[in-house]
Amino acid sequence: MRLRRASIAALGAFTLLLAVPSSASAAIGEFSYTYTGLDGRPHVRVLLDPDSRECITLPEVADPNASEPAHSPRNRTASTATVFTEPDCEGDFFALRPLTGRGSERMKLRSVVFS
């Protein structure tokens, strides 16, 4: 009887483990950047647990004709963040290491991908 209960408990735990989403689909942590708002003042935006291996065009600076690029990225995720100067992960790029990677005001970006 005890063996049966232990088997059922183990099977239930395994089933729950399979049902929980994997952290491999997200870069755990936060990524922040600064952009100039319509009011002309700097604003900081944070991406919390962003998707991995998916290009993220930063919405505030997506249109190169209408806005200045974002700057001063801070990568506090557990993944490498590659920032791009153009939307859709195009243009020049630079990799920011996990947890401590950062760039100055001179580092311009419009999109990012985490790997």
Automatic annotation (TrEMBL):
Region (Disordered): 62-82
Signal peptide start-end: 1-26
Keywords linked to the UniProt accession: Signal
Name this polypeptide is given: Secreted protein
Native organism: Streptomyces katrae
